[in-house]
């Protein structure tokens, strides 16, 4: 895939893992041994997933990460480059193992994921700050997730703020973070479980998400709560609302659907689209992704979503069906 250029950058700071996806009928109980039906090896990691999701939709994506000096690391870099992601800021860690994720997928389409961080934890705050400040430019966005150490997340978000680019933070998996860091996220993106951890009570549907979003608005500049098959709820200074999801023709695997949402959201915010439209495209991307196995391989292109590429003049025109 040809790398998109000329549009504001989407800088993704995050994890890169090799995913080992195995299928089971139902989760095993404590002490129980079960036989998996199949094993699939695919590129993953929340950061890499979001970078690919953004690039598939013509985002001008640069990825800041670390991989090990091993076959998995080399494979991940090749896959990212083939998707049009700039990997010049991916550091290869000698004597380090590339991160990996063990993904169990059940017949229901739900999944459970265990991550072994490996070289992802070799990122340093100094390197992240220097890289983000160097490649940031007007109109761009910076995306980071919580599969990284706290100091790396903080460095990415604060450097984005200092560089004048929008900081998108996907608080997944949930971890407690300082209030002053959450305050400059724009938006903070969480699912129902992560939102529940933040507000202190269960968030399960659009109604409870609406209440939670109002509470989150006091913690951050803007927020999105993703709701799976129910779409997403968003709030910022100007607007708030629920974006329903189209009915998926089939649900094969929900792995990485949230990352598809974040990558699409980031790309359309960088294109200058409204928050509501960016959330809408994110919902379309996440819904499309559940129809195929794996993460990155399931992500849509603009054509898949009946969207058009940016025009040469404005660089951000889009139609949403």
UniProtKB/TrEMBL annotation:
Which organism does this sequence originate in?
uncultured Propionibacteriaceae bacterium
The UniProt activity regulation field reads:
Activated by a monovalent cation that binds near, but not in, the active site. The most likely occupant of the site in vivo is potassium. Ion binding induces a conformational change that may alter substrate affinity.
Classification via PROSITE patterns: PFKB_KINASES_2 (PS00584)
What's any GO biological process attached to this entry?
D-ribose catabolic process
Q: Subunit info?
A: Homodimer.
Q: In which pathway does it act?
A: Carbohydrate metabolism; D-ribose degradation; D-ribose 5-phosphate from beta-D-ribopyranose: step 2/2
Provide the active-site residues from the annotation: 259
Q: Which SUPFAM superfamilies match?
A: Ribokinase-like (SSF53613)
Q: Which PANTHER family match?
A: RIBOKINASE, SUGAR KINASE
Top-down, what is the taxonomic lineage of the species of origin? Bacteria, Bacillati, Actinomycetota, Actinomycetes, Propionibacteriales
The entry lists its GO molecular-function terms as: ATP binding; metal ion binding; ribokinase activity
Keyword terms, alphabetized: ATP-binding, Carbohydrate metabolism, Cytoplasm, Kinase, Magnesium, Metal-binding, Nucleotide-binding, Potassium, Transferase
Q: Which residues are involved in binding ATP? A: 191, 226-231, 258-259
In terms of InterPro entries, this protein maps to:
Carboh/pur_kinase_PfkB_CS, PfkB_dom, Ribo/fructo_kinase, Ribokinase, Ribokinase-like
GO CC annotation: cytosol
Tell where it localizes.
Answer: Cytoplasm
Q: Which cofactor does it need?
A: Mg(2+)
The protein's name in its UniProt record? Ribokinase
Question: What reaction is this protein's catalytic activity?
Answer: D-ribose + ATP = D-ribose 5-phosphate + ADP + H(+)
Pfam families given in the database record: PfkB
- The protein's Enzyme Commission number: 2.7.1.15
What remark does the entry make about the cofactor?
Requires a divalent cation, most likely magnesium in vivo, as an electrophilic catalyst to aid phosphoryl group transfer. It is the chelate of the metal and the nucleotide that is the actual substrate.
């Amino acid at each position: 895939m040809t790398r998109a250029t000329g549009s504001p950058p989407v800088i993704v700071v995050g994890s890169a893992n090799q995913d080992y996806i195995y299928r089971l009928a139902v989760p095993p109980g404590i002490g129980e041994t079960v036989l998996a039906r199949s094993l699939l090896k695919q590129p993953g990691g929340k950061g890499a997933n979001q970078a690919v999701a953004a690039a598939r939709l013509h985002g001008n994506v640069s990825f800041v990460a670390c991989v090990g000096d091993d076959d998995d690391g080399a494979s991940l870099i090749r896959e990212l480059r083939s998707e049009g992601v700039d990997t010049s800021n991916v550091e290869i860690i000698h004597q380090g193992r590339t991160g990996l994720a063990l993904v169990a997928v059940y017949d229901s389409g739900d999944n459970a994921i265990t991550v072994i961080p490996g070289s992802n934890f070799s990122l340093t705050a100094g390197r992240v700050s220097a890289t983000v400040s160097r490649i940031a430019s007007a109109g761009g966005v910076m995306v980071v997730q919580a599969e990284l150490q706290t100091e790396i997340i903080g460095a990415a978000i604060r450097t984005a703020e200092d560089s004048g680019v929008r900081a998108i933070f996907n608080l997944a998996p949930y971890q407690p973070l300082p209030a002053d860091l959450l305050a400059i996220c724009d938006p903070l993106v969480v699912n129902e479980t992560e939102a529940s951890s933040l507000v202190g009570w269960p968030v399960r549907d659009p109604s409870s998400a609406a209440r939670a979003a109002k509470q989150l608005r006091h913690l951050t500049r803007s927020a999105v709560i993703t709701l799976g098959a129910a779409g997403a709820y968003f709030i910022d200074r100007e607007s708030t609302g629920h974006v329903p999801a189209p009915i998926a023709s089939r649900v094969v695997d929900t792995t990485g659907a949230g990352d598809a949402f974040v990558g699409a959201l980031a790309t359309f915010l960088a294109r200058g689209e409204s928050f509501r439209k960016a959330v809408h495209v994110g919902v379309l991307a996440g819904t499309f992704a559940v129809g195929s196995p794996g993460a990155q391989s399931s992500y849509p292109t603009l054509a898949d979503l009946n969207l058009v590429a940016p025009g040469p003049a404005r660089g951000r025109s889009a139609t949403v069906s």
